[in-house]
Amino acid sequence: MDKRWPLMLAGSAAALAVVGLGAIWLGAIDVRASTGHWKITEWVLHGVMRASVKAAAGEAPQPLDPDLVAMGAGHFEQACLFCHGAPDTPRSALARAMLPPPPDLKEVVATWRDQDLFEIVQHGVRYSGMPAWPAKGRKDEVWAMVAFLRAYPDMTGDAYRRMATAPEVAGAVATGDRQPKADVLARCDACHAADKLADGSFVPQIQGQNQAYLAASLRAFLSGERESGMMRVAVNGLAPEELDQLAAHYATLARAPSPGPDRPAPTLSEAGRMLAERGDASRDIPACNSCHGAGSGNPLFPRLDGLSQATIATRLHLFQDKEAQPGGTPYRELMRKAARKLEERDIKALSAYYGSGQ
Length: 358
Ligand code: HEC
Ligand code: HEC
Ligand code: HEC
Known about the structure:
- The protein has helices at 5-25, 39-56, 68-79, 81-84, 93-96, 105-108, 114-123, 139-151, 157-164, 182-192, 211-223, 229-235, 240-252, 266-277, 289-292, 309-320, 332-339, 344-354.
- It is an all-alpha fold.
- It has three domains: 40-164, Cytochrome Bc1 Complex, Chain D, domain 2, CATH 1.10.760; 182-252, Cytochrome Bc1 Complex, Chain D, domain 2, CATH 1.10.760.10; 266-354, Cytochrome Bc1 Complex, Chain D, domain 2 (Orthogonal Bundle), CATH 1.10.760.
- The protein is built from 18 helices and no strands.
- Helix content is 52%, strand content 0%.
- The structure holds heme C (3 copies).
- One heme C (HEC) binds at residues 46, 49, 79-80, 82-84, 98, 100, 102-103, 105, 108, 117, 120-121, 125, 128-131, 145, 149.
């Protein structure tokens, strides 16, 4: 046999590649969306997407808390409905003209496992318009979206609307220049209204929280300094002065007790009370109330009463995570330090103590 055949083969492959690239360069590949994909292209692209998602997906999660569904709905309304439609809203004509068109999720959710949905919502789908989650370090928020997507196929239009929006805005809504606009308040109340707060949801109660803390947090969400995909979308397009008006509005509303159980497991919450009031010097854990109690006098230290168990636990986990950016005030390093030595059982005890209708 001719000993030069490998060389010849390589030569022809190179020539083919040059011809191929030349053809692409000259415009042989049609990228016009108006002509649509051929069925085979569509099948291949979607097949590639399915295989890639399934290969990348991680472990199945713990069972997802049903209280996460409503916060997922609030975000879906702001960030996903435009492309995917909702039970009572058909997909926009603009979205249906995209290539590939965003599917009606009611029909496809059942074909994916939880961890696949997580993968799609976390990373988005390249070359399709499906965006990645706007905050890299917030897996907890992405799981809340998965909880929502799981419940979505069985949701009626009414049930969806009740969850995803606030029919009535609580508190005075004035029309003056210095008050937040009613449509913006409605957007916030879709997640933060008093009757939406729940033990297993980590949407914090903002009614009656210190005004300076609310204002600093909102500005930090806008700049991206405090990382949250849900809040990033919620404050998108608002001016800093509007954020200050929102802080002033919510700070004047009455604070409700935590949405948790009135009587938590007594040993757990007693352990929580000890840490809150005295800390544990032997383990280098400060007394939480030295900063969070009424006496600290610093309005940038948030009050913790009235928060849900899930909020307390989520925030403590974030402050412990070196990769996360959980703080929105200049004092956030103090909180990181306070959280550093907490163990999982301490976090459970503190959530039970602060998150129990006290
Ligand atoms: C700009 C338009 C757009 C927005 C906004 C958008 N998506 Fe998508 N989404 C798409 C497109 C396009 C696809 C199809 C990708 C494909 O098939 O390759 C898709 C696919 C998906 C899929 C996989 C469904 C399947 O079987 O193909 C899920 C799940 C999903 N999106 C959820 C969401 C969620 C949740 C949000 C909001 C956080 C969202 N999307 C926001 C355009 C969008
Ligand atoms: C999709 C649901 C959703 C919407 C809509 C939403 N929020 Fe939030 N908000 C959250 C979540 C979740 C957090 C917790 C973020 C975190 O873990 O850092 C949060 C946190 C906050 C905080 C920080 C409170 C604290 O105790 O640390 C403020 C202030 C806030 N939101 C105000 C608003 C305002 C004002 C609006 C309207 C412009 C709004 N939110 C709209 C879900 C939402
Ligand atoms: C030295 C002061 C200090 C101590 C001690 C402290 N914290 Fe904090 N904590 C802060 C500050 C400041 C923030 C606000 C951080 C930011 O957003 O920039 C905060 C925020 C929080 C939040 C978030 C509240 C919300 O509305 O989202 C929780 C929960 C919390 N702390 C719990 C605790 C617990 C539990 C302890 C006791 C183990 C503790 N803290 C001890 C200063 C402190």
